[in-house]
Amino acid sequence: MFKLSYGLFIITARENDFDNGCIINTAGQVTDTPLQIAVTINKKSKTYGMIKNTGVFNLSVISEKAEFELFKHFGFQSGSSANKFDGYQAAKRAENGVMYITDGVNSYISAKVVQDIDLGTHTMFVAEVTDAEIISDAASATYAYYHSNIKPKPQEKKNKKTVWRCKVCGYEYEGDELPEDFICPLCNHPASAFEKIES
To answer: Which parts of the chain are beta strand (E)?
Structure first.
């Protein structure tokens, strides 16, 4: 599945004067007339609930100029326990009232949900584009580009130990066995997202 070509995006929402956003890798244009996009988001995400309730979101397209800190800020902490926009300067409010990201992205799209499709753990929102703006001419980052060029390379270990590395964020767990119910403390992915590294 990691060989599929994904883009990387920050999806943002606003509800009851609270701004939030998270990293997603499933978004794309689905129709031209009317201009519609589809995004898929995990139901456990606070952003999911906000979009479900308000029907409005912005999608910031992450570029190859993005730094790892952007992914840590929007992908490795939960909006349920952190206000991601408190003191965050690289964002502006669009006409739809929702924040969008201004650094490390090449554009943003504002959209209004017209349909949602239950996919079990995730929901696909089909939405009509209401506004869009190009921010830079930098190429869009793919998931493969993120792994090759943005995500920090693992540190070499001097002592031989069994290491389990998260394929999403690079977090490393040391131990002979990775517990089946282990959840990555950085990006909240399950044990199935880890690979065994012999060091």
So the answer is: 9-15, 18-24, 27-31, 36-42, 56-62, 91-93, 99-101, 105-118, 122-134, 162-166, 172-174, 194-198
